[in-house]
Amino acid sequence: MGSWLQLLLGMAVAPGMAFLGWRLFLATTVHVEDGEAVLVEWFGRRVMTLTEPGAHWLPRRILPWMRVQHVSLRRDFLRLENVHVTDVEGTTVMVDLWIDHRVVDAAKATYSVERLDEALRSLVAHAATALLGRRTFWEILASRSDLGERLRADIAADTERWGVCIEHAFVQKVSLLPEVTSRILESLSARLGRVQAEILEQGRIEVAALEARTGVEVAALVAEAKGQYPAAVGRAMSELGKSPEILSAYNELHRLSVLRPHRATAFVGFGPHEMSAIEAAMIPARAEPADG
């Protein structure tokens, strides 16, 4: 019985010693992960900063007045939604901001500012209000990339004192209040209507001018054509004058063509020494005999 008890005790002692050794190792070492820094404090005063990844032997860590703090050095982001900004024209603009940042000095980030995340939010909101408040809504909408770079430059000095590096700053979204949007849409509609009316009026003026120029050109062409007709007739009559018989026949035909039997009575056939056509027209009509 005693041998079995000694065997069990021997089997329990080995794992217990290994466990105690492992706990002692953890209690006297500091483990630094990749992308972080560890601040070692002695009675509340920082005595060292560990940045190399791996296990660091620190026997004094077992003492109760020594404390370690793990600070992430990885890239992080901060997003601010619906930041209200009043532009230079008095319009309330809502913007979303995106800030990429990382801690470059763990000691400053821990001891220079309290609640780093809240401080960054307050700083970015204040800088955005000051920067965007000097511009109109349309300028903010058209130059968001440039404004993001300006915002990063404006807050870089303050964040450097906190041991934080701002890598990128973006103005992600620009919007207006619903009532402001309605007023702007109404204004745009009125402007479009005015521009449309101006275009239509300009079109009517241009059409009238084109019609006037066309009328002048047509009148000039008609006048030129009318002027060419008598000249052509004169040339034709000159050619007919070379043949007296043809000219006489043409004149006779022309004289007969102008007669209108249904409108007038013509007297034709009198000789040069006989009664003329006008004298014949003056002869009174013979009265018709009465019946019975």
How does this model look, in words?
There is one protein chain. By secondary structure, this protein is of the alpha+beta class. Among the domains are: 21-72, no CATH class; 76-176, Band 7 domain (Tetrahydropterin Synthase, Chain A), CATH 3.30.479; 245-281, no CATH class. Helix content is 53%, strand content 22%. The chain has eight helices and eight strands; from the N terminus they run αβββββββααααβααα. The chain has helices at residues 2-27, 106-111, 116-132, 137-142, 144-161, 178-240, 244-257, 277-281; strands spanning 29-32, 36-42, 45-50, 54-57, 66-72, 76-86, 92-103, 164-176. Strands 3-2-5 form a three-stranded antiparallel β-sheet. Strands 6-7-8 form a three-stranded antiparallel β-sheet. It has a two-stranded antiparallel ribbon with strand order 1-4. Strand 2 and strand 3 (45-50) form a beta hairpin. The longest helix has 63 residues, at 178-240.
